[in-house]
Amino acid sequence: MSSSSVIDREVLQVIPQKFLKAYTIETRQVELLHKIHGTSILYSTSKLLCLSPSAYATSASIFHRFYQRQNCTLDKYDVWSVALGSILLASKVEEDVRRISDIILVFIQVYRRMRLEYGKQGTSDETEHIVTAKSAILQKKQLSEEEKENLLRYTHPLPRYGILYKEWEEQIMEMENIILRELGFMLSWIPDSHPHTFILYFIKVLEIEGKDVAQRSWNYCNDSYRLDFCVRFSPEIIACAAIHLGCIDCIVSLPLSPMPWWHAFLGSKEDENLSTVCNGLMALKSNDCIKGYSDALTKYVVSRVEGGSFVDPGSYSWNAMD
Is this entry keyworded Coiled coil (predicted)? Predict the structure, then answer.
């Protein structure tokens, strides 16, 4: 792998050949931003639910695999709905089950905070770059800064038999069934396919001392789930890319002769794929890797569902937060 391929800070998106004609650069960027928004929701909610890192990785893997299905598009399913179902299923697969009521309450808390960041002053240029469905509901009046502060300061308890709770409950139950059908009810194998399972073994074989490289590599593996690498590349490739970048960060040299060290784990035909993963992971370290990236991480992004999703501006969930 050449040094230039690692330095090239660009998120690459590999599209199957049969879909190339329908894809444009703009389409790929929009899809990427929405999926990054979805995985940031998964990351925040999994932390608040005290789920294990493996459960977060499983939920993100389910999320990305769902959108890989040909009929599961962002125009049909918003990321909040899919994230709800993904977290619920991941907690079951990992045998770290959380009650539906707890999941809903945590999601609503994250939703409330991201909603208050929506349209915040000083970031409108980036927000406008994220393409959403064209609908009249987007013209609704936004909260003032004072109203946002008051809303965060005073959070009313959510009645479990109220309309808002019931709407989220129906959504999570429906998406659980849809995801299971689309993925063929086969989810139990996912935890064993995480790249994290290979990192410590590879590091031990490479005789890398200290914990710094292992920690950096582990963090890169977590970052990889912001992109759809888990459905495009084998976990061994992602693990090697994470170790490679972790060693660069910690200034640790690995053998490149008589052959590059990663050939011992991947063979000699995966250099290009390894380079692609490294490029994507490096790009995620910069907030300007793609316009709108920082907004997608912390602010509510309006869905592409025509007419709006159940949490878009103008919906009952949106107005109930006022």
Answer: no
